[in-house]
Amino acid sequence: MTDRPEACVLIHGAHHGSWVWDPLLAHLRLPTLAVDLPGRGAHPADLRSLTLDDYAVAVAADIHTAGLARVMLVGHSLAGSVAYTVAARNPSVVAHLVGVAAVFPSPGHSAIDLWPAGLRWLPRTGLVLRPGGRRAPLRLSTRNARRRLTNDLDDERARWLLANLGPEAVGLMTSPVPRTRLAADLQRTYVLCSNDRALPSERQRRHARTLGARIVQIDTGHDPMVSAPRLLADVLNGLLPSS
Asked: What's the predicted TM-score (pTM) here?
């Protein structure tokens, strides 16, 4: 089996869609598949019923439909959980797992479990008490999105990003990643975004340690595929083995 991937598969984070990778695509050396997670774009679905398993199954199906046998799998933000699940279940397909400002809960745990042990009741209670109840899709206010996601974007790119953000399934946060361990020989890289206001650097470092990944640091905010696509492409292209 070759360690050289034949394509790069990009998984967007929460509230985003495959569109967020558009500024990056022209700069990548590998053929690229930017997937839509269920509930948006090419995969409409009821966000109230979706789980992490639904997301992972959809990504694996897109890879299979595209006829890809060996890929570099890139997960952004909360899609770290999705990428981990896909890689754990498909070890012969994923040659390199990359997280970009990504969340990687420990096996058997969910993103919501990353809260300090004594405070985990807060988000869980909030999900129950909010309008629409526990299953209602999560929505990111424009004010919160602007503060957390646009600090390194110019006005034009900030408007574009904010205009395209959408609701997200609660299941992405509450579903545990599988207890299946990643293949021991799987290459793993974590792209740490040092100017990220959504996921501070120290939390990113903890996720990189959980993944067992080497860290490549770039000076960007949470969405480097929008703010610095050439820089992120240089990192991803640099991960490819020499021919």
From this structure: 0.93
